[in-house]
Amino acid sequence: MKRLLASLSAALALTAQAQAPLPPEIAARSYVLIDLAAHKTLAERDADTAQDPASLTKLMTAYVVFSALREKKLTLEQTLPVSKRAWDERKGDPSLMFLDTTMTPKVDELLRGLIVQNGNDAAVALAEGVAGSVESFVQLMNRQAQAWGLKHTEFKNVTGMSEPGHKTSARDIAVVASRIIADFPEYYPYYGQRDYTFNKIRQDNRNLLLRRDPTVDGMTIGYTDAVGHCLVASANRDFPNGKRRLLSVVMGAASKDARASESQKLLNWGYTAFDAVKVFDAGKAIATVPVWKGEAKEVKLGAADAVFVAMPHGDGSKLQTQVERTEPLVAPLNKGQRVGTLRVTTTGGTLVAEVPLIVQESVPVAGLVGRAFDSIRLWIK
């Protein structure tokens, strides 16, 4: 997992090194567009500028709750009390699922209130249910941000209300959103729910693209006076070589409609300006190499997933690959162990992607005679 996170964080920070198409003019303070299949930034502007995260904060709030569910610290059917602190959120902001202290909603209901209705009261109730207090939960949020290496993010609350020191950047938000999609596919559908009714109060999801573009299946919105209107949108479109998911983060648009239209513009451009080129299928051996002092004399190396790269439209044929690996490879080798790197470059030598190469099948240590024989061969070599 650490290797995956490091690879993803580095990939999200990598801009196109080959000559790339110019993105359209986006009327927003900052933005970033990521191809999640290729782990590549397609376009960005001021993506590392720290600013008020608004309700985009709730992406990390949800991630920490999802983690608690996976660790069985709570369940979807578990009920949680509504504290006076959660109820007091009514006083400050209209983003609510309208909880009161007589209620004991289920975790599942609170997650829908958090994600679909953007409820600040739901955020507080969940934080207290997971960590005992909002302050302790915020520590978990910041710990996760630090684990991912988010350099421009610090959380002070779970709702996104403006507060000194509460900050993030478009790129950091893209990391959080992409981790939700990758790590919790079972919970990601919450972000595509178009409306939710709780206590007979129906509210529409404020992500307008869920109704405008059938390929957009999530994520979330935000607004404060300090940053303006924000939208994280994830689209998944069909292409001849499979589905292709793009993720856009737009921060500081002028209105609710503008954040939707500018996000749509960015997504449409990404799909038309770049092609997703599949270099290798998932599970396919990329190289077969010799092994020393092992029960097997050779081992297959591959990538953890299918290898995609994003190339400017029409340039997909201008690619070449190179394997860099540990030499010599000495047993024991464990399945999934990283022993090299696949470099994908243009024919002109420009680096397009670097993918960890891992052992596809374990190779145990050979017996005494086999080890001794290979030791002699290595010494001669």
Automatic annotation (TrEMBL):
<keyword id="KW-0133">Cell shape</keyword>
<protein>
    <recommendedName>
        <fullName>serine-type D-Ala-D-Ala carboxypeptidase</fullName>
        <ecNumber>3.4.16.4</ecNumber>
    </recommendedName>
</protein>
<comment type="pathway">
    <text>Cell wall biogenesis; peptidoglycan biosynthesis.</text>
</comment>
<dbReference type="Pfam" id="PF00768">
    <property type="entry name" value="Peptidase_S11"/>
</dbReference>
<dbReference type="Pfam" id="PF07943">
    <property type="entry name" value="PBP5_C"/>
</dbReference>
<dbReference type="InterPro" id="IPR018044">
    <property type="entry name" value="Peptidase_S11"/>
</dbReference>
<keyword id="KW-0573">Peptidoglycan synthesis</keyword>
<keyword id="KW-0961">Cell wall biogenesis/degradation</keyword>
<dbReference type="GO" id="GO:0004180">
    <property type="term" value="F:carboxypeptidase activity"/>
</dbReference>
<keyword id="KW-0645">Protease</keyword>
<dbReference type="InterPro" id="IPR015956">
    <property type="entry name" value="Peniciliin-bd_prot_C_sf"/>
</dbReference>
<feature type="domain" description="Peptidase S11 D-Ala-D-Ala carboxypeptidase A C-terminal">
    <location>
        <begin position="274"/>
        <end position="365"/>
    </location>
</feature>
<comment type="function">
    <text>Removes C-terminal D-alanyl residues from sugar-peptide cell wall precursors.</text>
</comment>
<dbReference type="InterPro" id="IPR037167">
    <property type="entry name" value="Peptidase_S11_C_sf"/>
</dbReference>
<dbReference type="InterPro" id="IPR012338">
    <property type="entry name" value="Beta-lactam/transpept-like"/>
</dbReference>
<comment type="similarity">
    <text>Belongs to the peptidase S11 family.</text>
</comment>
<dbReference type="InterPro" id="IPR012907">
    <property type="entry name" value="Peptidase_S11_C"/>
</dbReference>
<keyword id="KW-0732">Signal</keyword>
<keyword id="KW-0121">Carboxypeptidase</keyword>
<feature type="signal peptide">
    <location>
        <begin position="1"/>
        <end position="18"/>
    </location>
</feature>
<keyword id="KW-0378">Hydrolase</keyword>
<dbReference type="InterPro" id="IPR001967">
    <property type="entry name" value="Peptidase_S11_N"/>
</dbReference>
